[in-house]
Amino acid sequence: MNSKIKNISIFILVFCMVPVLSTAQTEDPIYIQIDFMNVKQGVGAEYVAMEQEIWKPVHKERINQGMISYWGLYEAIYTEPDASYNYITVNVFHDLSKLENFFDYEIIESAHPGRSMNAILNRTLESRDFVHNEVWQLVDSVLPEEPNDNARYLVVNDFQVQPGAGGEYLAVEEEYWKPIHEYRVDNEMMAGWHLYELMMPAGSSIPYNYKTVDFYESLGDLEQPLTMELVQTANPELSEIGLDAFMERTLNSRVGYRSVVLERIDFIAAPDD
């Protein structure tokens, strides 16, 4: 057997980024908007305080009004050296029309009655630089039998899949990797797994179009190697095609763009999510 295949300690590290959602495949689509923020060194505590004191009550009101079902704040603790961001926020919703009034001033005023809107906006702008945002749709997931709010760490993996090859990539994820993730979740080796497809923005200038997110309760869980013995145990059908063919099809289906580790700082969710 090829030596590089013998021990793939691949987390298939392969994002957002939400706590493990309690419903994977439902009739209602699940979308996430990721906002990337750059916070200057030394002012991270002020930025986090701003999000918790100003925007968390706003997101709670948005949840109450059915605009979103989840909001989360995450810090990028391991990322690429030239990353343009170090924090992200995530909003989860079920209808793209919700983007039309994503931040209604009436909701802000309802969350902060009598408070100066200029003061709110000034503190927000002074605490961070907004970099950009993205909208993704949940395609598939592996969830524990009981919802897990302890998934504090996320390994987010961005991939580039060539135009027209999305069907093959999704087939590899579902046929080969999903059973492995199910085994790892069932055996408490990880807390969940999500697969997303990028909706906005789009175009050839975007270096990734699919994302997987691995959820863990602690960084120590990342020490568990994804060996080929585990892969075969979790997915016996792989023996029929051979491990070399399995790895070749996996590698040919997509190109890894980046893998980063995020830590959840705070979140708020609707009661049934």
Q: How would you sum up the major sheet? A: 8 strands, antiparallel, barrel
The CATH topology name reads Alpha-Beta Plaits
Radius of gyration: 20 Å
CATH top level?
Answer: Alpha Beta
Shape: elongated
Number of domains: 1
Strand fraction band?
25-35%
SSE order: HEHEEHHEEHEEHHHE
Overall average pLDDT: 87
Order of adjacent strands in the largest pleated sheet: 1-3-2-8-5-7-6-4
Total strand count, please?
Answer: 8
Uncertain spans, ≥5 residues at pLDDT below 50?
1-26
| Alpha plus pi helix count | 8
Fraction of helical residues = 25-40%
What's the architecture, going by CATH?
2-Layer Sandwich
Distance between the termini: 44 Å
Structural class: alpha+beta
Topology:
Elements (H helix, E strand, L loop, with lengths): L2 H4 L24 E8 L5 H21 L5 E9 L8 E7 L11 H7 L5 H11 L1 E14 L10 E8 L5 H21 L5 E9 L9 E7 L11 H7 L3 H4 L1 H11 L1 E15 L4
Antiparallel strand pairs: 1-3, 1-4, 2-3, 2-8, 4-6, 5-7, 5-8, 6-7
Helix pairs in contact: 2-3, 2-4, 5-6, 5-8
Description:
With 273 residues, this protein is of the alpha+beta class. The protein has one domain: 2-Layer Sandwich (Alpha-Beta Plaits), CATH 3.30.70.100. Helices cover 32% and strands 28% of the residues. Strands 1-3-2-8-5-7-6-4 form an 8-stranded antiparallel beta barrel, surrounded by 4 helices.
